[in-house]
């Protein structure tokens, strides 16, 4: 500082009334640099300089302004009247993505060619006009896909400095927006996938059912037996795909248990080693103090297997697959500063490989169903979407990080178990018995199903077993049968139907006619069913089902 220049004061203010400022010097000049479009009414920088009226203080003031700006967390720079950079602080350089020794001469050199003219014209206009400020949207060279706000304010009384530029480091904000957009997209795709799976399950139920009925008339050795069996096998493969879609859309049947992640990893390690082959080495590491989690052990094993198989495919020449488990405390979560992961206790399951990695542009799409980077004909694109659905349905969170040539890492955070398990309605899923028993019966059944093809095949299957079957197209028609004085030993009903759905019909029947036996069948999962009804002693048969399965489900429902 020169002898002729006294100390000066820089104060960053908000709108009028938002703060108080005390000036302790004799001032001869107070400079006001607006930072918002509304000029004096908005946020601004006040620079108070005592220069005794001499121009020497202009240069001294500019030096000290630069010293101040260099320590501010805001990205700020000074530009002369010709549009050349005079100064840029560290925050500005970081946001702009350049180093000090590589700062270009003009602000327009920082942006993409399409925005260069707009930046140059705006800087020139603010340098020669009145003291004012404004923002323009630009795209930086190293971030051509993301628009960023460049704040421009005209300066007066700073010697060669004529324009103040500001860049905000909105990388975290942009990251959060991407995460929210991705979560919203995944939710929408999940709803679509669940709806498609539900409708497709109805079609598959009819195909598999009619195949079963045809196989009864075409025993092994018949010329048509092999063709019918092939149709049924392909239908079962399609049913497997719908189960994966239901897993992605979080509508899959889960049987949660209280378990330890290291036990699940140990259980699946032997199978995983065989799947990985000789060229891939498996390393497992468990830390102490991991809390228990509430999840379906079979589905967690499926998660590990899917991630392991993907890792193996990413290491065609061999490599290392690492599986780690460790506890995560609330303080650890705070240190992560994640906008997605809530503060709490977690058990972390981490699966990483040393493979080829995933390109940055594909990293946000890997959990979408049917998205795959594999060659045509290899993979369905449902592996990672299934993993995503299982983790989310278990109340957990999954994050992926990858770098080309250095491998990929998946981190799964499952909340640790605390408290008692909430009591859910007693919904019993009927499964295929290991050894078939006699399925003949003589009960009277009301079959309520809105899909004609499903209703027809179910009616034929049950009639063939000796049951007396009457049908209805929706819940209202089913209630009308009871209103007409008819009574049945069992109600077999779909869950989702127009006019009146299955649960609404069931509640009305039990309110008016007592404890009616009910067997629900649906393309949605049992967990979805539990959320839509509040009834005890209800049986459940998932679609698609075979003739044998519906016969067994009806037999079991009539027993109890």
The low-confidence parts are: 1-28, 49-57, 421-436
- State the end-to-end CA separation: 94 Å
Globally, the shape reads elongated
What's the overall average pLDDT, rounded? 76
Give me the Rg, rounded: 34 Å
Strand neighbour order, sheet with most strands: 16-21-20-19-17-18
Oligomer: single chain
The largest sheet, given as strand count, sense and whether it forms a barrel, is: 6 strands, parallel
Can you offer a commentary on this structure?
The longest helix has about 45 residues. Helix 4 crosses helix 11, helix 7 packs antiparallel against helix 10 and helix 11 crosses helix 15. This protein has a six-stranded parallel β-sheet with strand order 16-21-20-19-17-18, sandwiched between helices. The N terminus is likely disordered. The protein has 15 helices and 21 strands. The termini are far apart. A hairpin with a 7-residue loop joins strand 6 and strand 7.
Features:
alpha/beta, five-stranded antiparallel β-sheet, 39% helix, six-stranded parallel β-sheet, 560 residues
What topology emerges from the helices and strands here?
Blueprint: E1 9-13, E2 29-34, E3 44-49, H1 56-71, E4 75-80, E5 85-88, H2 90-96, H3 113-128, E6 133-139, E7 147-158, E8 161-167, H4 171-217, H5 225-248, E9 257-259, H6 261-276, E10 280-286, E11 293-295, H7 297-313, E12 319-328, H8 330-336, E13 346-353, H9 360-363, H10 383-393, E14 397-403, E15 407-415, E16 427-429, E17 444-448, H11 452-464, E18 468-472, H12 475-483, E19 490-494, H13 502-513, E20 518-522, H14 526-532, E21 538-542, H15 547-559
Parallel strand pairs: 10-12, 16-21, 17-18, 17-19, 19-20, 20-21
Antiparallel strand pairs: 1-3, 2-3, 4-5, 4-8, 6-7, 7-8, 9-11, 12-13, 13-15, 14-15
Helix pairs in contact: 4-5, 4-11, 5-10, 6-7, 7-10, 11-15, 12-13
